[in-house]
């Protein structure tokens, strides 16, 4: 079934509530209110909005603190932008969780966390969004976990402009994006742990004028030469990881393989040069060039295919449902992530080695 969005004008006044009497701490869509946005507008702080299967043609703006938006079934609760609306879910309030649903076909973002603290994005499928799958922008103290992104013209997952970030990106799959994961000016207790960045044009990039205290542990970064993906303006292709280094970063127990350009590209940060003490127990094999520093002699880049529009990227495979058990603590626990195998999250991926 399909639902036509109803856009309600909501006056937000400090100390007042827009809640409708009788709705309680859990609101069911469409049983009680016909759209997700109506439920968000009506909810009190701390409420949970449970969304039944359906295609919801709307853009959801969250401005109430502490809400949880949870799909009843990840693959069949779909917020569809129809290639007309900019974003699926925009979070503009603290302590908001988005869980167990799909966002697709938006002209900019699947999910955008904008200048907020305490966010959580869990078991979300974000596909065919023209710029970002899931982006945390000027945000802090959050988690992006167990999610999937494909068809992003900028990056599947992105954390931008935070210091200290206190953000964990863990257990995600990114494929058929221009870039799997992108961190820009994201420093300070920033963790990228146990993800699969495979089958993109570029696996992972992380850069800042001065980047510090970023941890990359237990990630699979492989075979990033997918032609049927959107192209970025700079045309990068065939690259595994590109990191602007600094003295406090850690790159450990990552498997980087099968990238036809460079496996790991390291550039010196401000007032620093890349040194081996930040590279520990990685396996970097079978790439066009396994490791390259800025001072190395350049090698010929692999020819980059033209790329395809975001809305033409293949639909994602079926993804796992969020378990009924409580989600794990937000703490990063980087020590628990071992060197991954090449088949990490194969059951969630369409692009294989």
TrEMBL record:
Residues 287-353 are annotated as: Disordered. The keyword Signal applies. It comes from the Bacteria. InterPro entries: Beta_helix, PbH1, Pectin_lyas_fold, Pectin_lyase_fold/virulence, SCF-Subunits/Alg-Epimerases. Residues 317-326 have a biased composition (Pro residues). Residues 62-220 form the Right handed beta helix domain. Keywords: Repeat, Signal. This is Right handed beta helix region. It comes from Lentzea waywayandensis.
């Amino acid at each position: 079934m399909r639902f036509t969005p109803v856009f309600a004008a909501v006056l937000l006044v400090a100390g007042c509530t827009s809640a409708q009497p009788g709705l309680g701490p859990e609101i069911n869509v469409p049983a009680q209110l016909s759209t997700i946005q109506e439920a968000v507008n009506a909810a009190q702080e701390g409420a949970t909005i449970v969304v039944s299967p359906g295609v919801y043609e709307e853009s959801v703006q969250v401005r109430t603190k502490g809400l949880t938006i949870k799909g009843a079934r990840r693959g069949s609760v779909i917020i569809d932008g129809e290639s007309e609306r900019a974003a699926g879910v925009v979070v503009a309030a603290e302590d908001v969780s988005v869980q167990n649903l799909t966002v697709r076909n938006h002209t900019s973002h699947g999910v955008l966390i904008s200048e907020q603290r305490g966010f959580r994005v869990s078991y979300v499928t974000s596909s065919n969004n023209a710029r970002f799958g899931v982006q945390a922008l000027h945000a802090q103290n959050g988690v992006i976990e167990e999610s999937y992104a494909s068809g992003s013209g900028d990056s599947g997952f992105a954390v931008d402009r935070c210091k200290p970030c206190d953000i964990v990106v863990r257990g995600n799959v990114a494929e058929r994006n221009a870039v799997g994961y992108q961190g820009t000016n994201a420093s300070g207790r920033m963790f990228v742990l146990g993800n699969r960045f495979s089958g993109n044009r570029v696996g992972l990039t992380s850069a800042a004028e001065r980047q510090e205290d970023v941890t990359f542990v237990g990630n699979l970064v492989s075979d990033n030469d997918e032609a049927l993906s959107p192209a970025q303006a700079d045309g990068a292709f065939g690259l595994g990881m590109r990191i602007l280094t600094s003295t406090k970063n850690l790159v450990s127990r990552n498997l980087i393989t099968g990238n036809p350009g460079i496996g790991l590209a390291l550039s010196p940060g401000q007032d620093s040069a890349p040194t081996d003490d930040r590279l520990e127990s990685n396996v970097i094999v079978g790439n066009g060039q396994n490791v390259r520093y800025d001072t190395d002699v350049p090698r010929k880049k692999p020819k980059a295919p033209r790329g395809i529009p975001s809305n033409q990227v293949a639909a994602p495979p079926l993804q796992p449902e969020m378990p009924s058990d409580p989600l794990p603590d937000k703490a990063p626990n980087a020590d628990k992530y071992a060197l991954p195998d090449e088949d990490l999250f194969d059951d969630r991926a369409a692009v294989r080695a």
